[in-house]
């Protein structure tokens, strides 16, 4: 699927790409409306509509991913609520085999996430994800979400990347497009970000539902480097 001999660095999203998105979907679409309903004494359906409207207003911006923003906006202790669901924070079963194979093949592995630093820290605390990564960056430290070209410009400079020799993996097609526009040479979608939801269809990028589909070609390329 990819010319691995032409890829030095693999850039990876976190939620839905390396971690099962079920945690986040359950948190933001079920637990938050439930807690808002209880805190304001309003029907669940009204609370659900309120949060959905609030989400839509900032979709694609850094605020959408910011726990501090949602704590102020909804008047809920968002991080404390995260901690009530830590048992739902799960790695995809195929993530560590893929990350370990990348490391074995000498590929640089960089996590690029829109997750707030507090959410990122919690997820790293409750998984072994960090063991399979060389670098980790939250977009909050750049001041721009991954949807913005300014984010990619900072990433390329910060890590000294040759963008044409990078592969970027994400479950969000709009963010894959932002990476392509920034000159990232290869993109890959994840079609099953939430293990409990139907597969997604990608229109403009190749997509897989299991990293193990990549391992044979990846390992073969490492055994037969170009002359």
UniProtKB/TrEMBL annotation:
First and last residue of the signal peptide: none
Pfam families: Hydrolase
Record's keyword terms, sorted: Hydrolase
GO molecular function, one term: 5'-nucleotidase activity
First-level EC class: hydrolase
Superkingdom: Bacteria
Gene3D superfamilies reported for this sequence: HAD superfamily/HAD-like
Enzyme Commission number, as recorded: 3.1.3.5
NCBIfam families found in the cross-reference section: HAD-SF-IA-v3, PRK14988.1
The protein's name in its UniProt record: GMP/IMP nucleotidase
Organism: Shewanella sedimentimangrovi
Lineage: Bacteria, Pseudomonadati, Pseudomonadota, Gammaproteobacteria, Alteromonadales
